[in-house]
């Protein structure tokens, strides 16, 4: 008497513990809205003040990737994101390489954020050694990430809201300064986009740095198994 073992082919998924809003907020947190204040000065020096045009170049380049993610997340609703897309669309070997490349991105991005935060804290409290801020920030972020995905989502929501408020305050101060005669003295000017001393190559070089502000859709696609809503609804909204 023989027994035919039936393999378990059921798909293993992550627990659905999030709604759409926290998922979107985590994607926005990954994009880091206030990153523009970190990179603006660097890119402004590279492009002779033509940062908006550099952002336009970055937007055009990233738009094709974002559209691809929108199509792939509907076809492969998996938390593997780029790894899964490359593995199933091209080959397992390419997926393996993309997966390790993505892992490096997820390792380096927090390091950059910690270093930027350290610079700000060091400027605010110069009497405290910089390594203290680094250790404290790493310990805090690690502890929070070890709690649960819902805790991380709630924390990211608070961070995004604070960033939006700060951006609104800074934008209001800029508009007030323009009306007071500072800068170009007008809200509408073509000089930040193009002028006589503008050069395309420095703008494209600056765009490579500004691409750092357009990585949130990858973070959202990594959470495609987390929303409580039906996967088809999430895929439609995320794309």
From TrEMBL:
Where is this protein primarily located?
membrane
Q: Which UniProt keywords apply?
A: Membrane, Transmembrane, Transmembrane helix
One Gene Ontology BP term is: transmembrane transport
Q: Where in the cell is it found?
A: Membrane
What InterPro entries does the record point to? AA-permease/SLC12A_dom, APC_superfamily
Q: Which GO terms describe its cellular component?
A: membrane
**Sequence ranges assigned to domain Amino acid permease/ SLC12A in this UniProt record:** 23-226
TM regions (residue ranges): 20-42, 54-73, 94-116, 128-146, 158-179, 199-220
Q: How does it sit in the membrane?
A: Multi-pass membrane protein
Specify the protein name: Putrescine importer
Q: Which organism is it from?
A: Klebsiella pneumoniae
């Amino acid at each position: 008497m023989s027994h035919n073992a039936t393999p378990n082919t059921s798909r293993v998924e992550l627990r659905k513990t999030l709604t759409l809003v926290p998922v979107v907020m985590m994607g926005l947190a990954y994009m880091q809205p206030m990153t523009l204040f970190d990179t603006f000065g660097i890119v402004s020096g590279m492009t002779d003040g033509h940062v908006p045009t550099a952002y336009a170049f970055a937007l055009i380049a990233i738009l094709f990737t974002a559209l691809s993610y929108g199509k792939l997340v509907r076809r492969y609703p998996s938390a593997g994101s780029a790894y899964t897309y490359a593995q199933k669309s091209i080959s397992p070997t390419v997926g393996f390489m993309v997966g390790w490349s993505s892992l490096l991105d997820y390792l380096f991005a927090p390091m950059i954020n910690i270093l930027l935060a350290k610079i700000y804290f060091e400027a605010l409290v110069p009497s405290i050694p910089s390594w203290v801020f680094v250790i404290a920030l790493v310990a805090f972020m690690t502890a929070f990430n070890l709690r649960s995905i819902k805790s991380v989502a709630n924390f990211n929501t608070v961070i995004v809201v604070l960033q939006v408020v700060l951006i609104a305050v800074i934008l209001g101060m800029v508009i007030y300064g323009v009306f007071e005669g500072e800068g170009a003295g007008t809200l509408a000017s073509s000089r930040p986009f193009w002028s006589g001393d503008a050069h395309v190559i420095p703008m494209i070089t600056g765009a490579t740095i500004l691409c750092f502000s357009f990585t949130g859709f990858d973070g959202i696609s990594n959470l495609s198994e987390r929303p409580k809503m039906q996967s088809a609804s999430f895929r439609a909204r995320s794309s």
